[in-house]
Amino acid sequence: MPDAMVHHGFYYAYHNTTLRSGVIDGVKRAKELFGDLKIIVLGHSMGGAMASLCALDLRVHHNVGDVQVMTFGQPRIGNAVFASYYTQFVPNTIRVTHEHDIVPHLPPYYPHFPRKTYHHFPREVWLHEAGFGLLAYTVDTVCDGSGEDPSCSRSVMGNSILDHLIYYNVNLKAESWNSCRIVRDPSLAKYGTTDDAGNIKLSKNPVSSALKLNTELDAAVNVV
């Protein structure tokens, strides 16, 4: 799209590494097995930026109809023209931000230069504390459709790394390159297997069905 611009580093990290081919192949395989599924793409921090680019890629280049996105602590990835273009193709997007999380404030947004500055796409949901002391509680504020609601996370200083690491009382910091606290939640254990390379495979069905399915697929590949 003319005049749409994105951050080179985020674009390169998704489009010029093995990440893209791995995700696209996985989605195609899932659709072949289970039909026309709803695809939900999740990501935290830089992973949120790449999740957004992935969702747009699936919609524009791979004809995946129903793609939803939820990111946590995502940075800005493009200008206002890109944000509008993205929203046109992936309207079912939720960007969760938390209190004073520093990352959603980066790269900076300059409201006086709307055509040249980075610009978030909607829809932001800002998690923040209300009340005091023992009466404090968390509020989920659904922000406006501009992507840069001045009454949401933009209303506070983005100066906290701790707020970036914890969302919904879950520490999202990975202990190693192949660990993911969301995927490895104990409640999901029976739906997943891990191969020798540390890749996590999830199924709609309990793990026994997933193992059976993998065996059948391997047999089919060997026959071909």
Automatic annotation (TrEMBL):
Protein EC: 3.1.1.3
Keyword annotations: Hydrolase
Pfam families: Lipase_3
Start and end residues of each Fungal lipase-type domain: 4-108
UniProt entry tagged with the keyword Hydrolase: yes
InterPro entries for the chain: AB_hydrolase_fold, Fungal_lipase-type, Sec_MonoDiacylglyc_Lipase
Organism the protein comes from: Opuntia streptacantha (Prickly pear cactus)
GO biological process: lipid metabolic process
GO function term, MF aspect, one: triacylglycerol lipase activity
Signal peptide location: none
Stretches of the chain forming a coiled coil according to its record: none
Name this polypeptide is given: Triacylglycerol lipase
EC class name: hydrolase
